Model the fold of this input.
Amino acid sequence: MGSARTRVWLAGKGTVVDVPTVTFGGAGAIHPVQRGTIIDTPGCSRMLRRLLGNRLPRFTRPVVIVTTPVLDGVAYRARARAAVEVLRPRSVLTVPSARGIALAADADMSRPLVVVDIGAHLTEVVLLCDGAVTDAHRTALGTSDLDEATTPEQIVEAVVTMLTAVRRHDRTSRTAGAQRRGILVAGGGALRPEITYPLTARAKAPLRIVPSPHTAAVRGAAKFLQAVRPPSGPWRGCPCAGQVPVVRQVR
Done:
């Protein structure tokens, strides 16, 4: 459930939903997720019921996995779990979007990775070590902000600032090594050459554009779901749930 788009992958069917994140109330269209934050949990529930109510077999209690932004991760997870209760899930798992992106790219997560996710309303730079979030930064800026007042150069500058911050906070060679091997870039911004071309020069590192970057997070979550193969009983937790990342926000 992103700020701009909600994408759903169903086992055996693939990606079956790719629609604007919007619900409807007495005042018309409502955007229940804004800048990576769920601000209307009941609205998200109504949206999920509308999108999936007739797509799931009756009496099914599905295992649901939700990708989450790193910043506001705890609050997002709690609200997302409350929202998906409308689907009567057997268990709800969460995975950081950056990890989903790495899975979609078939990246070697035994080595440090730098992931840049340029979304419509939010951009994150994340350092993954052994698949876990080690450091993360974000800015409330994305491709939907591009107009005469907000230029692609501003998004590039924000990403470079965050990449520099990750290097400065890393007292090892992990970030430098990950950037030399190539920065994973996903989100709709990865399809914008006016962003990726100057970013390559400014970051002084190769960019590895994830295939179909705008759907990478949900496809990675699908791989995670297929890999874990949950047992018949309810789950007690998720491998991602215990991560307590170091998170910083760039304004």
Notes: The chain has two domains: 5-98+215-243, 108-213.
